[in-house]
Design goal:
- Two copies of one chain form a homodimer.
- Chain A is of the alpha/beta class.
- In chain A, 34% of the residues lie in helices and 17% in strands.
- In chain A, β4, α5 and β5 form a beta-alpha-beta unit.
- In chain A, α1 packs parallel to α11.
- The longest helix of chain A is centred in the middle third of the chain and has 19 residues, at 155-173.
- The interface between A and B is large, with 69 and 70 residues.
Chain lengths: 409, 409
């Protein structure tokens, strides 16, 4: 069995439970006799190149446990694209030198598609130069778009936040007899996994009237027709849209603006498809409107995380260490579901890297404006259980790490 | 002591705890031998005029208890402006006729400034025509702008939601080494009570860089200077603005748009001062930006309500009934704080109606771009304790009322 230091990094967009995976990996690694040191790279690959490592053995175990309930990336994140080493080996050589200096023999990267791609490339490079190092990926993404895993850590908590918030907004906008057309915008540029979770509010009696996903082509006229019919009957309409909805030609609905919202460099400003649609409803139908973007809380609302998600994220981190010390490398940890029970497996990184899992068609209704009950069967187990986050002084008590830097070698 | 039916209504914008006040009033009234019936008017005064009353004695006590943890106005709300009866007595005569038909001798209205004004006018009218009826107001508003009460039910929960969400967003945007200028927009057209609560996140180590309230005049150039200095030092800036911030001339900053955002009819589109400021930061300073509107969840996020607020709201409802059966009328219930303990009192409706409580100047720093610690002393007790909301199937289990209508007489 390999003996040496273990290095863990986080990458890509934060989630409510990416730190729970970190806790699972760190706490498991600290107990393993073959792992001489447990380091965290600040800001992912960038921290590797900068040699900014923190020493987890100097942290309080209580604070490490609190990471399970702490949102965002405690180690800091990065968006760093690694070229193939055949094209540009310089950065790989730099990484290798650092790994050698600190005798890093175990490397774990927590992230989404791009991070799994980085992981795969580093693993391949180490093999090509004969450097003995276990490299495994730990999945995370609220987007739920990683292949070969039933679902991804981060998704269940985002769903629980969205479904709860949609329920509360539903009750709020139901208070007035004559209401508005309320359009809520949900994250997901290419896939509707997150937007679909608004459907969960139906089990609470708070079903949205219309739900539009990027997977179905969006027709403005049909949308306005649907809104008109519902408004005339109920005097209020509750619409959910994915930020990346597109028309039949593949153009983003976000571009259907009446005003010019390009920035000074001519780039289209991000966000706001709900506002764009509100504008069309108001101008064409004359109904009162309100646009709501759920925005960042979708990925960082740890106070409403799913305990199932927290525990699964933890187990993904733990499993990554457990398989690593069995000499299993080049893998991403997966979550498998069978007959209602969950187990953790592995899939080779090259299988999963840079691939995208799409919503099954059976989760979307024929008209492309709502979600089916089949989806509820899939998603409900993922939002079960509430976080054990403690409150102090009325606010959540998140982990406070000392982040003591390892002296540079 | 008066014997007859009791009627309760809700009015104005919903909050996370307005139903807790309803529960307090209903459960207390149901136990009182002098109160023959306990009715709820659907959609406030409109429900009185339409005679759409529900009979609370037909509801399950368990569901009535769950109202404590259920957001929005369970009875439905209304925005209904009552003229003085000296000017227009028709609507008052209609109300009186309905009250006589159902022998309503106790009337309670849960709402903000405008609702207290309606309450006062109805009470005056009843007195002027010699109709024996107790009329009391129960305060609610997330805006905290009612006079003669230390704070208002609904405010503490909104603060707890804002402070928690701001903490989570702070951690999220701290993940990247080089970040953006993130501008969060908070409700409050005229008063900064809600915006100020973002400061609470400082006790969690998540202090925003800049906080702007409608109370201080906003200077775009100074703002851009502040943002530039902070960004150059930290590579990210976290700004909180109240939606109603204005410049020295009193013009809304919302109007400082670079593009023409009038709709086809020439009306200014509502919302989005954070977006307007982001646009200026991007165009003038060239920094990456993100605008976030906290929007409706500020007033309906019952899942994050303050238990102190829930219990105080309940007590306000309960106290309204208790003083009523002692023949005390024409009052609004107040919350008083002395030496850390809370008690409930009353104030004549004419004192409080249509008045607005402003933020004390000592809560705002000299430069007008942050909040003082003095404010923390005031607000921290209001956010203590967590809701006892139960979850079912992974989602909050809100009250489900049967809402059986009373047959029209």
């Amino acid at each position: 069995m390999l003996s040496g230091a273990c290095l863990i990094g986080q990458s890509g967009g934060p989630t409510a439970v990416i730190n729970s995976s970190l806790a699972g990996a760190v706490i498991t690694a600290l107990k393993n006799p073959n792992i001489t040191n447990v380091y965290g790279a600040l800001h992912g690959i960038q921290g590797v190149l900068d040699e900014t490592f923190i020493d987890f053995s100097l942290e309080d175990m209580n604070e490490l446990e609190l990471l399970k309930y702490t949102p965002s990336s405690a180690l800091g994140s990065v968006r760093f694209f690694l070229d193939d080493f055949e094209k540009n080996s310089k950065v790989y050589e730099d990484i290798l030198n650092v790994f050698k200096k600190y005798n890093i023999r175990y490397f774990f990267y927590i992230g989404g598609n791009d991070s799994m791609d980085s992981c795969m490339k580093i693993n391949k490079y180490f093999k090509s130069v004969g450097y003995d190092c276990i490299v495994n990926g730990i999945p995370k993404t609220i987007d739920n778009d990683l292949c070969f895993t039933d679902h991804t850590p981060g998704y269940g908590s985002a769903c629980k936040y969205i479904a709860t918030t949609i329920s509360e907004i539903y009750l709020d906008i139901s208070a007035y007899k004559k209401g508005r057309v309320t359009i809520v915008e949900i994250m997901g540029r290419d896939a509707g996994w997150l937007t679909a979770s608004s459907k969960i509010a139906s089990i609470n009696g708070c079903n949205p009237d219309l739900i539009y996903l990027p997977e179905s082509s969006f027709c403005l006229d049909e949308f306005l027709d649907d809104v008109k019919n519902i408004y005339n009957e109920k005097k209020k309409v509750f619409v959910i849209v994915g930020e990346g909805i597109r028309d039949a030609k593949g153009d983003y609905i976000l571009n259907y603006r009446n005003y010019n919202n390009n920035d000074t460099f001519g780039h289209l400003q991000l966000g706001g498809v709900a506002s764009v649609l509100c504008e069309h409803v108001q101008n064409t139908l004359g109904f009162p409107v309100r646009a709501i973007e759920l925005n960042l809380p979708q990925r960082c609302a740890a106070h409403l995380a799913s305990n199932t998600d927290i525990e699964e994220a933890y187990m993904c981190g733990k499993t990554a260490i457990e398989v690593a010390v069995k000499n299993i490398t080049g893998q991403m940890i997966t979550i498998e579901r069978e007959n209602g029970s969950t187990k953790f497996g592995t899939v080779p990184l090259e299988e999963v890297a840079a691939k995208v899992k799409e919503m099954p068609a059976e989760f979307i209704n024929a008209k492309g404006n709502h979600i089916t009950d089949k989806y509820l069967e899939y998603v409900l187990p993922l939002i079960q259980g509430e976080t054990k986050l403690r409150y102090e002084n009325g606010l959540p008590r998140f982990a406070r790490l000392k982040k003591i830097l390892v002296s540079k070698k």
